[in-house]
Amino acid sequence: MVNPAFLASVKTVKAVLSNQEEELTLAGKVECDPDKVIHYAPLINGVIDRTYFSLGDRVSKGQTMLNIRSSELSSLQSELVIAHRNLQSAEAMYEDKLISEKELIEARSAYEKLQADLSLYGENMGGGIFSIKAPMAGYVVIKNASSGSTVSEGGDPLFTIADLSTVWIIANVYAGNLQFVRAGMEVEITSLSYPKEIFYGKINSLSQVFDPEEKVLKARIIMPNKELKFKPEMSVVIKLKNERQTPCIAIPSDALIFDDNRYFVVVEESAGQFAIRAITLYGHNNQTSYIASGLQESEQVVVKNQLLIYSGLKGMRPFHKQS
């Protein structure tokens, strides 16, 4: 029995049946959508004459990115000048009926082929200089170009442009978590950059092959990014929730008492009559604990002043575990 004055300060809640919510936290990183990325690699040997962009810049399609000076291109430019003169001469001679139409077509084709060849390298600025334009609109996410540096045909990309309106978030899934993670699961994404914001998405795909270096599977989450809050290489935390299909007893975690390496709760069996119960757990999620054994649905579990009652009951008589 409990003193009536003390009883007024005791609070209980009813144990209920509930589907257990399991929560898993994964580490992740923001990456560019590879379908919306273009890498520009040099097509010829030369020297960068000037750059017009910085890392992180927003660029428009067709915007000048850099100029390259190349002796190889200078030779092609000279050939183009000669081919243009030959075409002008052929056109004049054809009008005077000094050459055949076939010869005129050959002269025009030679000139147009050189034009097409030169256009592959950029805009012809003359003097062996070609201007490289942005092939798409987006943001410069990689820059490996600076004025005066040499470039080689087939070398590393000089710059990379990405459309960041959509990004990928890649989560690392360890072998022990495979039974929990599946494609289509809803996720919550948080970042130190935006501590008060939660972003919602879902797992679009889960790799079936472990990364050989990190020993993890990669889960992909495709996120809209119109406000550009997600930056490439940004670290994020991904939380997943899963419901156990078989309902189990759920109580507030505040009701738990940990003693002698076991969990206990105090139950009000009738008004003012309390008893100790030893319990086993399925697990916790936030403020809820899920009970595997030791408690029945609808029993009243003490959530305030339970420690005082527990101590009093233990002092009155030996305690035996109940199953």
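the 2nd protein, sequnce then structure:
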Amino acid sequence: MKSILHQIADKTRYKERAEAEAIRTEISNPSTPNDRRNFLKKAALGGIALGGLMHLSIEDTIAQTTSKVSRSSSPSDLKITDLRFAEKGNKGSYANRILRIDTNQGIYGLGDIRDGTDQRFAGMLKSKIVGLNPCNVEMIFKVIKQFGGPGRQGGGVSAVEMAVWDICGKALGVPVWQLLGGRYRDKVRLYADTPEIEDPAEFAKVLKDRMEVKGYSWLKMDLGIPALLDIPGALVNDKAWTNRGLDNAYSGKNYTDYYNQEHPFTQIQITEKGLERLAQTVEAVRNAVGTEIPISADHFGHIDMNQAIRIAKAVDKYRLAWLEDTVAWFYTDQLKEIKASIETPLCTGEDIYMLSGMIGGFKKLIDERAVDIIHPDLVSAGGILETKKIVDYAEEAGLPAAFHANSTPVAFMANVHCAAASEGFLVLEHHNLDNPWFEGLVKMTGSQPMITKGYANVPLDAPGLGIELNDENLKARMSKGATGYFEPTPEWDSTGFVYDKLWI
């Protein structure tokens, strides 16, 4: 055994010296960030240099090489002690979306309940998870998954799930992607979402800026009836929905308002004039950015499948990357009919919860090949591991996955880890490109920035999700007049006795 150690030492001694010198050089470089410098110092202390251990016995060698292992965390003894929100209440702020799960060892994890989610979907889970070991991630998910559902109803379960992954990674000292089985990529391609701009030429100019200045190689645009509302003769039957949510998204509170209607039940149609205008918009964008750049399209409005097919045929020749959410995700047969009638790829999934279950899931959509690309939103789908399971199942069926994301940097980084660990992944949405403060809501704990020229960097030298909150910046995004920050949540300490099994 000792001769084998000698052979290994001879082969690695030179390499170890070179690596040690490189570490010293980087530590002494004034431009090296403090987080990176601290990481390198710890790595140097914990390194194993066999060349310097040859005078020791085998037993002493083993003892020496394990002496620098961190004992600050004992993962098997971890217990969840609390769940709090950066800002309590449902006021729509970025702080309102972020939760923190605390443990008995001072390690905490961050989660994100997604835009438009009621905090109560997450708060009610506190009494279900306090006292559990956060490293038993899958078991915790099975405890709470029944309390999630499609759309924003999945936000609470998903936020808790990503937070316990964050804790587990920190406790074990590894990035979350490592716990998922390793990574396929070191950087994650992003697509730049772009808000609706009525003038086609101006819209094309904005998209071109995203590509040439900001470095994005995949773009998305809105394309549908909202862009046609002020054009006489572009739509049929739209005036019946004016002041009922059509002209002010999500404003209607009545059950029969526009945004409460599923797609087949508005009977809004697009005229040939309207189709020509949509085609002109796509043509202007395609001419501006060229043929190499994929362009996706979204927000067609609540129209039936016949109108979706007509739009698709009007723009098929411009080779869009996908048409997104043409009709509601649960109309599998209608999606199949749209897909069979058009050339442009079809994509949906941001409101689907889990791979399978009693309330839907991606499985039927995938099994019946109703779309060309699945589009889960991790913060609605059930969290990091469930999204990976969805992507892996779709891959077996020959379907790639793009990730929808309209959340805080916490969920954004959860998506990055999941994307890194999923082979069938295509591209991740960046919905906050026009918010200059977005990245500053958190601090990266590794050596790389969050985003570099259209790609998110996968954390390679930081545990957990690889982020900590930038408290001052996050407080600045709180609701006007808000004062509390991660206040206690005793109202969720207990829900009393509830027989919450789904069978008897």
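Residues 2-65 form one domain. The chain has three domains: 2-65, 75-173+483-492, 179-469.
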